[in-house]
């Protein structure tokens, strides 16, 4: 029978973020760059893939450019997209990507590339990044205020304290149901769900209906 053990992390964090994909890693990186003590957790292994669109719209490419990460995306073999064709009912429209704000092309990095670049940048910013660690719930004080997380890493159960907890690990994040505010007299829990925050990094492109006999032209992703 596998022995259970509980480990209490003696270090207190300003922010614990569950989920090290686009939303979580980008949030952790920016907070760490501002000097916050950040712990970023993800239940998957480093460098694993996930079901997702690859196409980044201009806003996401601009973010990578401003963060100094776009050169790493390009160096990974991600081709530049300087024009695209939209197939709409009764019309075909070709659009050239015009240079603006320091960006002259769009990109479609594979998630194994983009997520790893963001996680590595988060580490370089000084955050504590741990893969293979899942968040199982939230810790609360007697008033109901969130004071950290409970988690699991292999056979070990974890208890980690933090001033703020961010759930960036999807719609089924354990922090969602556990962070519902209590009665009006109780302080509001210091937990946030980041569902939708990844729109900052990633936008799904809808190009209309593909005409019969034609194939949609996807953005070319990272080679390899």
Describe the structure.
- The protein is of the alpha/beta class.
- The chain has a domain at 5-132: FAD/NAD(P)-binding domain (3-Layer(bba) Sandwich).
- It has five helices and ten strands, in the order ββαβααββαββββαβ.
- Strands 1, 2, 3, 6, 7, 8, 9 and 10 form an eight-stranded mixed β-sheet that branches. A two-stranded antiparallel sheet has the order 4-5.
- Helix 1 packs parallel to helix 4 (111-124).
- The longest helix is centred in the middle third of the chain and has 14 residues, at 111-124.
Nutshell version of this structure?
By secondary structure, the chain is of the alpha/beta class.
Return the structural class.
alpha/beta
**Could you tell me the mean pLDDT?**
79
Morphology: elongated
Proportion of residues in helical segments: 10-25%
CATH topology of the domain at 5-132: FAD/NAD(P)-binding domain
Gyration radius over CA: 20 Å
Q: Biggest β-sheet, characterized?
A: 8 strands, mixed
Second CATH tier, the architecture of the domain at 5-132: 3-Layer(bba) Sandwich
* Total beta strands: 10
Q: What's the order of the H and E elements? A: EEHEHHEEHEEEEHE
- What's the CATH first level of the domain at 5-132? Alpha Beta
Question: Looking at this structure, what is the CATH superfamily of the domain at 5-132?
Answer: FAD/NAD(P)-binding domain
Low-confidence stretches: 180-189, 191-211
Q: How many alpha or pi helices?
A: 5
């Amino acid at each position: 029978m596998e022995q259970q053990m509980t480990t209490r992390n003696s270090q207190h964090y300003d922010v614990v973020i569950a989920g090290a994909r686009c939303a979580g890693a980008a949030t952790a990186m920016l907070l760490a760059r501002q000097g916050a003590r950040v712990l970023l957790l993800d239940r998957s292994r480093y460098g694993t893939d996930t079901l997702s669109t690859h196409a980044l719209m201009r806003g996401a490419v601009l973010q990578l450019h401003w963060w100094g990460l776009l050169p790493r995306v390009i160096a990974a073999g991600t081709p530049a997209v300087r024009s695209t064709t939209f197939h709409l009912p009764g019309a075909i429209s070709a659009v050239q990507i015009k240079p603006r704000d320091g960006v002259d092309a769009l990109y479609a990095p594979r998630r194994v590339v983009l997520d790893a670049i963001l996680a590595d940048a988060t580490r370089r910013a000084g955050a504590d990044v741990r893969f293979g660690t899942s968040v199982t719930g939230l810790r609360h004080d007697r008033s109901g205020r969130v004071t950290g997380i409970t988690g699991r890493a292999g056979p070990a159960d974890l208890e980690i304290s933090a001033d703020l907890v961010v759930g960036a690990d999807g719609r089924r994040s354990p922090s969602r149901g556990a962070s519902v505010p209590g009665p009006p007299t109780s302080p509001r829990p210091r937990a946030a769900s980041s569902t939708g925050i990844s729109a900052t990094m990633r936008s799904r492109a809808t190009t209309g209906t593909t005409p019969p006999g034609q194939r949609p032209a996807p953005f070319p992703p990272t080679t390899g």
